[in-house]
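Board notes (copied after class):
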Amino acid sequence: MKYAILSHVWDKFPPEQSYQEMVKIQEEVKDQRSGNPDLPSCAVLARLRPKIRECCKRAREDSIEFVWVDSCCIDKTSSGELTEAINSMFEWYSRAAVCYAFLADVSPEEDPLGVPSPSSTFRQSKWFKRCWTLQELIAPKALRFFSSDWTLINGKHELAVSSRKSPESTLIYFFIRNHCSPSASQRECFGRRDGSQLGRRTKRIR
């Protein structure tokens, strides 16, 4: 099955839409359509958060029918499903046709391929400080970065040379440039380096 996947920093205010919210929206729209057959097919989409709508829009432009978003496609009330999702995340990102990395704190005018600047919004983005970033950067065959208004910044391979000069891990640069995926033992090693040496942050999902 061909699908796109979203990589993003979870919002706190307002909080991310959950799996339960998505199901509720779909059920409500289904009930509304039973009384109003002319209700447009985009009625569900209209009630989703802007970044999810934009993700779906990009997928349609890429002729992709399905989109997977971690914040609303995992039932986090089920410990079994949550555990399986966490353990399968690398595989799911690697199987995606394309990954859209949405950097909400990056200016549309940002040019990462320009003169390297440690103070650039791209290099300072919270996205680079997440513990999930390493696997979401390495795993997808194609990854595109988007700024706060969903302006395309560039793809990960095009940015590889620029990323090498940034404060990000040289391991990231190595795997981008060599188009390879690490083994399970290497990923474990990178995970330890990722958290302890690169100042990345993660939180337990409750």
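Comment from the instructor: The helical segments are 19-35, 50-61, 70-73, 79-95, 133-138, 160-164, 170-178, 184-197. DSSP finds eight helices and five strands in the chain.
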